[in-house]
Design goal:
This protein has 295 residues and is an all-alpha fold. The chain has one domain: MetI-like (MetI-like fold). The protein has 12 helices and 2 strands; from the N terminus they run αββααααααααααα. The protein has a two-stranded antiparallel sheet with strand order 1-2. The longest helix has 35 residues. It is globular, with a radius of gyration of 25 Å. It starts with 12 loop residues before the first helix and ends with a helix.
């Protein structure tokens, strides 16, 4: 090595110490995440027969999943439900985050954030069961409407429907959307808003031209945080949908456990991951574009 040249990447003691600190976590994450993912991909390329998985690799499982009308219908339903939940959740979360950021005194913001996270105190499963009680045939809504004489018989449209699933999921993931939007709004320099109003812009136009564009990274983060777990949700379609409106996760469970067709189930899982990956990449590129526009 020439004199005066910088040490190699691994010759730097600080880099070596950092690598040693990160290595156990990286290995642990690889074993927990990468290894099961590789196993699912391998399963999806195998042939499942009555005697078990064969060693030959094939794309027949993917062809069946991508061309089968049942699979296409359930995947489209999953995308539709996830998109509706994401849109409703973000649209309802933005005003809440905006109010806490701009209209709540600084010393009380922590209290508001604390109240927003209260739903996390209970299990997700319990919250879904509560919505089942509220929306059930003899649930709170139907009982209340019957007692008031508004309806003569319980409504069936609010139970075991896509709408009930969307409402349940939107409530469950609302805090996940509020928090990133709030953080993004908190980072906005208030002098930008004052400058816009000093130039004669109304509050509405200042919000449209300044606040909303600067908060878009938080909005995009909220979209991803809500969309990704929603499309793979298993509990809500099973309980609120009554098992009559399956989504991708329910279809995977049925193939792998009930029908014992692990190869096709794995192909469905990989297809779902590919769809989520494409959607995530699109929104990450949008986020990168907004971040560049702020510089």
């Amino acid at each position: 090595m020439k004199s005066g040249s910088s040490p190699g990447r691994f010759g730097n003691p600080e880099a070596t110490n950092g690598l040693l600190m990160v290595s156990p976590t990286a290995i642990y994450a690889t074993l927990l995440l990468a290894a099961p993912l590789v196993a699912v991909v391998v399963y999806s390329l195998m042939v499942d027969s009555k005697v078990g998985l064969s060693s030959g690799l094939t794309f027949a499982n993917y062809i069946e999943v991508w061309t089968g009308r049942i699979y296409q219908a359930i995947m489209m339903r999953s995308l539709t439900v996830a998109s509706l939940v994401t849109a409703i959740t973000v649209l309802l979360a933005y005003p809440v985050a905006y109010f806490v950021s701009f209209h709540v005194r600084p010393e009380r913001k922590s209290l508001w954030l604390f109240l927003i996270t209260i739903p996390f105190w209970t299990s997700y499963l319990i919250r879904v069961f509560l919505w089942k009680v509220i929306l059930g045939y003899n649930g709170v809504i139907n009982s209340g409407l019957l007692s008031l004489g508004i309806i003569d018989e319980p409504l069936t449209v609010i139970n075991y429907s896509v709408g009930s699933m969307v409402a349940t999921l939107a409530h469950a993931y609302a805090p996940f959307a509020i928090l990133p939007i709030f953080v993004s709004l908190e980072k906005i320099d208030r002098s930008f808003l004052e400058a816009g109003q000093d130039l004669g812009e109304s509050k509405l136009m200042t919000f449209w031209r300044v606040t909303l564009p600067l908060s878009m990274p938080g909005v995009i983060a909220a979209v991803l945080i809500v969309f990704i777990p929603t499309i793979g949700d298993y509990v809500t379609p099973d309980l609120i949908g009554g098992g009559k409106i399956p989504m991708i996760a329910n279809m995977i469970e049925g193939k792998m456990l009930k029908q014992n067709d692990k190869a096709v189930g794995a192909a469905i899982a990989v297809t779902a991951m590919l769809i989520v990956s494409v959607v995530s990449i699109v929104f990450l590129l949008l986020n990168k574009r907004f971040l560049r526009g702020q510089k």
